[in-house]
Amino acid sequence: MAFEPPERLVRALDETPHDGDAAWRQRLPDLVEEALGACGAVPERVHAPGGRSSVVVLVRLPEDTPAVLKLAPPSAVPEAEALALERWDGWGACRLLDRPAPGTLLLERLRPDVSLRSLAQAKALLEAADTLRKLWVEAPADGVVPTVAERTAAQAACLAEAPELYRPLADAALTARSGLLTDAPENLLLHGAYGQGKVLAGARAPWLAVGPSPVTGERAYDLARLGLDRVEDLVGADTGGSSSRRRLSRLADSLDVDRERLRAWTLFRATYGGVAALRRERRPTGEALLEYAGWL
Questions:
Q1: Which of 66, 124, 154, 234 would be a feasible disulfide site paired with 116, CB 3.0-4.6 Å?
Q2: How confident is the model at residue 257 (pLDDT cuts 50, 70, 90)?
């Protein structure tokens, strides 16, 4: 198989360089071949556009079993993803089949082109909430998975240097984060990057989560990312502000999450996402997220 890393991954690695990622990218063709050999897999194709933090190769195992080979750079902490998938053991998430090489996961094959984004918004949110509920289990105690405080520390530093135009919003987001971390009510294993696009159709279950960036902390942090799904549609609607607040209220009530804590974490995640997107010159996304944050 002639291998070229997906353009989306290359752009992401260029936008947010980390120690070790450049060397990983240079060795990627060899790493793919080594991983294929280690598990005896025959490649079908590289899934494109794929994610922003990994390469996904659709493969066939001996006895013609379909599977997925996922390779991630050091900055993506694939060890934490593997630990989370092992903890869930297929409950609400794709199943980890093996770890054939460092930084490589062999995963159950789902339907990579069919996500919850294929459903109408109301139905997608309902299915997404039901799947997310299954992932909230007791946090591991080995320290491999970062805490929400650790995950958001660099994001808070980014907001502290936000442009003057967005300073009031950034300050409000930083104040919200500080209060939330001071009085955290629970410590669970969280998906960390949950959204409708991270829930794929499966054979043994209708919908299963993929691509976690796991953290430990409270459910409201995880649910906040789901609240940001299809934000461009909300911003483009005449009733976007009221619709966004109703959406958060429904999500909070359906999963028994405190409404105010969900609003505060959504404010933080939307503001950081908006400022970061503007820095990467992704202006439409950045402006949509910051407008959404302003409604909160």
A1: 124
A2: very high
